[in-house]
Amino acid sequence: MLARTVTHALVGLDARRVDVEAHIEGGVPGFAIAGLADRACQEAKHRVRSGIASAELDWPGTNSRITVNLAPAELRKEGSGFDLPIALALLAASRQVPPRRWAGTPPSASSGSTGRCGLSAGSWLRPKALADRA
Predict the structure, then answer these.
(1) CATH architecture classification, 2-133
(2) How many angstroms from the chain centroid is the CA of residue 93?
(3) What is the pLDDT at residue 41?
(4) Residues 128/8, Cβ–Cβ less than 8 Å
């Protein structure tokens, strides 16, 4: 199962579009994030898993391999601002939320182990990115 959502990465003062693709397939359980993600972004695996559990939703990777791709690959992704888009893409791929609902919506927030969302660095720039897109 595959699902996509969109977010933005901060490059200086510019917002660059990032496509978040989550793929869930059978196989040896695992969770990989690809696409030049820094250490904080890689740690989203733990924050997203505990956030989904705290929201009393089903973790889609119990008996599955999860691959999250952050594209474009050459753009460095930094920080915890990708937590919410990753969680939404995973929930859409597992059909716990409607996949089309998040396809073009650029969410950005970090998630805690309680499932609560908080502002991340550059969150203030997301409305500007949306306005530039229009």
Answers:
(1) 2-Layer Sandwich (3.30)
(2) 12
(3) 92
(4) no
The domain limits of the chain are 2-133
- What is the pTM (predicted TM-score) of this model? 0.79
- Contact 85/17 with Cβ under 8 angstroms? no
Cα 4-31-2 angle, rounded to 5 deg: 25
Residue indicated by tokens 């969302």: 117
Q: Residue 80's Cα: distance from chain center in Å? A: 9
Range with the lowest mean pLDDT among 20-24, 43-47, 80-84, 125-129?
A: 125-129
The SS3 call for residue 91 is: helix
Q: Are strands 14-26 and 2-11 parallel, antiparallel or unpaired?
A: antiparallel
Query: 77: which residues sit within 8 A by CB, 6+ positions away?
Result: 9, 18, 35, 36, 37, 38, 41, 70
